[in-house]
Amino acid sequence: MAKANKTGKTKLHPTKNPISENVRGSMVELLQTHLATAVDITYQTKQAHWNVKGMNFIAVHELFDDLHEVVEDYVDKIAERLTALGGQAHGTVQASVENTILDPYPLELVKSEDHLKRLADSYAKWSKAAQEGLEEAGEAGDDLTEDLLTEVARGLDKSIYFLESHFQA
């Protein structure tokens, strides 16, 4: 979560952004969680990319690399939206560990099917949170954050489809 000041509010940088300070503060907190989760899933996907073995190795290896690039773009977009609202992006690996919604990725996975299923779980968990977040942003009247989280949720759903297609009959 974003660091709060003594009044319990998220500390924001001065900005001419027309959204109220209360809404900006709540959106910064929301986006901090999504930034942490995006950083986490970026490296969960790379972990799978580096360590996958088995049938269809090259196809799965390349899929994981492609998914990594997509999610890495979300990291940047989320951080930039957060800072445009006057927040301070907490985008380090350490901050991610403290704020991600995802479960730790098992380091012992090797088989492609195991990586595919585990990543599908992580992507689905973040997708659900992104959909909830876009509703929260809509209710707060922050159309741009709602739009960003819609883009993220749409991309995550596509990634889930790519992952699950390997083990669905």
UniProtKB/TrEMBL annotation:
InterPro entries: DPS_DNA-bd, DPS_DNA-bd_CS, Ferritin-like, Ferritin-like_SF, Ferritin_DPS_dom. Residues 1-20 are annotated as: Disordered. Residues 29-168 form the Ferritin/DPS domain. CDD domains: DPS. NCBIfam families: PRK09448.1. Belongs to the Dps family. This is DNA starvation/stationary phase protection protein Dps. It comes from Jiella endophytica. The lineage of its organism: Bacteria, Pseudomonadati, Pseudomonadota, Alphaproteobacteria, Hyphomicrobiales.
